[in-house]
Amino acid sequence: MHRTPLLAAALAAAVLVAGCSDKPAATSTPAPSAASAAEKPKIDYAAWTKGTSTPVKDPLYPAHGNAALDVLHYDLKLSWAPSTKILTGEATLQIRPAADAASIDLDFKPFTLDKVAVDGTAVPDAKVTAERLVVPVPVTKDNPVTLTVGYHGKPATTPMPSHRSDAEPLGLTITKEGGLYTMQEPFGAFTWYPANDQPSDKALYDIAVTVPAGWSAIAAGTPATQQGTTFSYHSADPMASYLQTLAVGKYKKATATGPRGIPLTYWYRDKTDARMLPSLKKSPKFLTFLEKRFGPFPFPSGGIVLVDSPSGMETQQMITMGREVTKFDAAAFEEDLLHEYAHQWFGDAVTPTDWNDLWLNEGWATYAQFLWDQELYHLSDQALEDYLRRYDAKYRKTLGPPAHPKAANFAESNVYMCPAAMLKELNDALGDAKFFALAKAWVQTQKGSQQTRASFTAFVNKQTGKDFTKLINTWLDSKTTPKP
């Protein structure tokens, strides 16, 4: 998730103390809609089977998302006009209803609706109210439909439910130069396209963004061939909406190759960005470190885009990193990059089903970050143990245990430090060989899925042949730091 400057600063202190798209073919049975059977387009929804999810209502943010809908695929055609600050879009969604419903309801920031259609039939009484797009067309469980929404307007953000020092409004943000960028965890994708904006609904994506000459558009996914000033991206691996991104600006591009030939792309703009380029170019080193411990990088490409933000985000295949820092600290920035790259395994490839289990993302990424620091600064196991326990106690006291986050305190330090301390205990109990075999197996066998605390615990016990339920539960639930 967004990087936490506190972690880098705190660890530095600890080190000192320690002395150290393919287009689908046509054939299928479309869902019921206002059109007659003869008028409905024949679409092979099997082309998007990989985007199938089992949505659930999120316990922390129940106003977002719709557990009755499973979006299989988003096809977004966007155009950005910096001079007028108007975003024009056409979103085509292939949706599998997860339950019978009287309407199609999605998260969407109020834009002017230009057209709405279901299975090719116009729905003139569709409307956006209170950040919900309501399309009054009944749907039947497991009978997929295609929703098309044309819209335009000036993007607006939504508040972030957090007290973090780097908290900022979420969603599509307009920059001073007239560009765009996003930060959208736990939600915010709905500020620029109609979305089932919750982690339990992962989908496939195709995005094409047209910008003026001299400008570039960057999104999550694998870059396709640029056509004129239209930039396209394809995600063949399912993605939660919070992991999508969009950045538009007068960017320059640098390319590199990571381990096993992974193509990497770095997007930067002016001199402020250029000072960070040497750190971006260390990406192959970061990925080599992570692959050794967690297995192959789980996507066909990777990269980083720099944006006007104080934070950072593990957006899938294209990390979104903020450049708004008063004084650039290369070591801290690189630590953040390592953290966000670790999320490609933990959070992106394997995603939590709901926001109560954010610790599954942040605990692993934070522990990976500390393993990097331990190697870089020659930090002893005991020094790391002492550091983790000290900060674990602090954050449990002020924020509570990591498995019971508060809705108003999204992604604050307890869901980073406390589960990282738990993973350190698990690592100590298993030894490096068995621990990293467990980590590799977790990612490589669960890739593309959504997981929960219960499924993680069951996986650990089965993989190791030992019962670690008590250890995991104690570290996740205790109000105080568990005893050694």
From TrEMBL:
Provenance organism: Paractinoplanes durhamensis
Listed SUPFAM superfamilies: Leukotriene A4 hydrolase N-terminal domain, Metalloproteases ('zincins'), catalytic domain
Homology family: Belongs to the peptidase M1 family.
Pfam families: Peptidase_M1, Peptidase_M1_N
Cofactor: Zn(2+)
InterPro entries: Aminopeptidase_N-like_N, Aminopeptidase_N-like_N_sf, Peptidase_M1, Peptidase_M1_aminopeptidases, Peptidase_M1_dom, Peptidase_M4/M1_CTD_sf
CDD domains per the UniProt record, alphabetical: M1_APN_like (cd09603)
Enzyme class: hydrolase
Catalytic activity: Release of an N-terminal amino acid, Xaa-|-Yaa- from a peptide, amide or arylamide. Xaa is preferably Ala, but may be most amino acids including Pro (slow action). When a terminal hydrophobic residue is followed by a prolyl residue, the two may be released as an intact Xaa-Pro dipeptide
Start and end residues of each Aminopeptidase N-like N-terminal domain: 72-243
Domain Peptidase M1 membrane alanine aminopeptidase as annotated: residue spans: 280-475
PROSITE patterns: PROKAR_LIPOPROTEIN
Its EC number(s): 3.4.11.2
Domain of life where this protein originates: Bacteria
Protein name: Aminopeptidase N
Signal peptide: 1-25
Keyword vocabulary terms for this entry: Hydrolase, Metal-binding, Metalloprotease, Protease, Signal, Zinc
